[in-house]
Amino acid sequence: MNTTPFKVSVSDDVLDDLRARLRRTLFTSASDPTYWAAGTDPDHLRDLVSYWADGFDWRAAEDMLNGFEHHIADVAGTRVHFVQVRGVRPEGAPAPLPLVLSHGWPSSYVEMLPVARLLADPGSHGGDPADAFDVVVPSLPGFLHSGLPDGPFTRERVAGIWHELMTGNLGHRRFGAFGGDIGGGVTQWLGALYPGQVAGVHLTSAVVSADFEAAPPTAEEQAYLDHLAAYDADDQGYSEIMCTRPDTIAAALRDSPAGLLAWISDKYRDWSDCGGDLEARWDRDTLLTVATLYWATGSIGSSFRQYYDYVRHNRRVPPVTVPGAVTLSHEPAFAHYPKSLAERVLTDLRHWSTPRNGGHFMAHEEPEQVARELRAFFRPLR
């Protein structure tokens, strides 16, 4: 295996500088009297920043992260960080199925850690030991400890890197794939490009095919597309600047940890199934663990690359013929999403579930639910 053990380690100098910057934060006033109506609420941000500076215990978070097995792999010249949670195989049980879990933005491998433990050792969590997985959780290129590849960042390109990681570096002949958001796009491409090695693909953020030439949208599909366009009109300001002027906003976020926290926590609140209460889904320590990782690695700007390259370089996913599953994310962007849209891309859709629990970051929000869904889908594919 061409991998090197890795430990998460942030120097005291970086932490001291972070806390000094947080204590010097200049705050704005709210633009709208309605709570969070104009973005991250300044009073909420003030409380979070105060806790980040003088209450949050990064060393405890670091110890928690290092309780997992981390590695760095060189995959075709690209530095790839990943967490590995090895499946528990009782005597007489079948070998665990390898499974790669892919996160999105502004997420990280931290999102996948709670469900990874459930998947690797189901026997210790009320499940059947025969359902164990060997879990691999990579950091997307340009995110946290992973480097950017040469050339454009596309979901197709990342799928190629993941395939080489799983089959070349780790030696797996066959594996499953799970993801949402960007990770969902990568997961679709894995199924489309490597049907001989990919046992099945499981998505939480449903797919929308742009190919309506052969079959125009049905009335139900068009109603959903209209809903999505209306939602995007209010939500996609963050995306427009990251797609067109990423370096401009990255300069501000790299210099201000409070700004970084405001930028990402806005999406954690909007996209989680939290009913407007961010900390109902993300306790402060977990949210600040993610923020500290982005800050300490200086990777917020490189995490924007997949936005900047999206329209210029991504092509439409071809039909995915391997077995497919969708556990639909309960977030505004996918309200009223029809199953038929997923079937336009996943031609062998075997599992469709709309639990109405767990949003954009479902693996963190509802890890037991995700573990159950993955076990059920992959059980006959082992």
UniProtKB/TrEMBL annotation:
One of its GO terms (biological process) is epoxide metabolic process. Residues 4-112 form the Epoxide hydrolase N-terminal domain. The keyword Hydrolase applies. It comes from the Bacteria. The keyword Hydrolase applies. Gene3D superfamilies: alpha/beta hydrolase. It comes from Streptomyces kanamyceticus. GO terms for molecular function: epoxide hydrolase activity. This is Epoxide hydrolase. Keywords: Aromatic hydrocarbons catabolism, Hydrolase. Belongs to the peptidase S33 family. InterPro entries: AB_hydrolase_fold (IPR029058), Epox_hydrolase-like (IPR000639), Epoxide_hydro_N (IPR010497), Epoxide_hydrolase (IPR016292). The active site is at D181, Y307, H360.
